Amino acid sequence: MADYKGIKGFTIPTVSSDPSNLAQGQMWYNSTTDTLKGVEAGVGAWASGGNVNTARFALASAKSGTQTAALIFAGATPGDPNLSQTKTESYNGTSWTEVGDIAVAVAEATGAGTQAAALCYGGEIQGPPWGNYPLHNESWDGTSWSEVNDVLVARTSAAGFGVQTAAMFVGGWGSAPPAGVRALSETWNGTSWTEGNDLVGARNYLQGCGTTTAGLIAGGSSPGATATVESWNGTSWTEVADLNEAKYNNVILGTQTLALSVGGSNPTFSPNPTANVESWNGTSWTEVANVATARASAAGAGTTALGLVASGNPSSTTATEEWTVPDTATVTVTTS
Prior knowledge:
Blueprint: H1 4-8, E1 14-15, E2 27-30, E3 35-41, E4 45-48, E5 60-61, E6 70-73, E7 76-77, E8 80-84, E9 88-91, E10 96-99, E11 110-113, E12 118-121, E13 137-140, E14 145-147, E15 159-163, E16 166-170, E17 173-174, E18 180-181, E19 185-188, E20 193-195, E21 207-210, E22 215-218, E23 229-232, E24 237-240, E25 251-254, E26 259-262, E27 277-280, E28 285-288, E29 299-302, E30 306-310, E31 320-324, E32 328-333
Parallel strand pairs: 1-2
Antiparallel strand pairs: 2-3, 3-32, 4-31, 5-6, 6-9, 7-8, 9-10, 11-12, 12-13, 13-14, 15-16, 16-19, 17-18, 19-20, 21-22, 22-23, 23-24, 25-26, 26-27, 27-28, 29-30, 30-31
């Protein structure tokens, strides 16, 4: 049987204290503590961040924002499902600050862009008469919102991702006859929207991540919770590996090949919403550490290494949670 030296070409070093500047796969024997140690890939964990100022659900975010520079906007008011929100909040990695309101109060709107350059489009003006889905699109310059060219087809609870000058508007629910879930895709070039190829499966209450040439959507309702995941190559949608659990109103962070699905709803869950988090490596989904606060219809921003989720249901929580994956982790090797 080959030994460590035969495999690696060198023996495990003996040291009196653990080394610094560690690299994945490195091993050593600590003679002071009489332990064999090694370095593996870091394991992600959630930590509490600053609370949002205005509790809400069905809100939107600048999906390409970061853990230390995020933007949330729109949403529905706790205890009053007939009242949509105009409030916008900016996050600096520690606390949220109210900034300029959007012009049209909407819930279930779609967001894209960054903290300094975002879009808010689609959504529903809640309250009777129901089914008021405006042809709506606003642009954020870091200080204020301005109306820009509208989406082509009014929809609510659709997915969006990209940046202010190149964004997607995917799926959702439309009221124009016949009312129902939509498979539509629209692409924004910074000036106008263009209709592209449809999703493989129509759905609403979905979210996505990525760019206008490499995107991903996961989950949604068709109606009824689905685990279906689709990948976008800039021209067409293709089904890829399903989530481990069917869910809708889950937050999707990251890119087409490295993504997180956080929380979500399904009437079969107990509790509902769920705290479950799944990680996508471009091929399959793996369950990772749960969020502390189970939530759906929340907002998110960032990457699979540094991300966050904020607000959402149940009870329109104000909680923000931050996801961090260290590059490496030191482990002690045992015989068990």
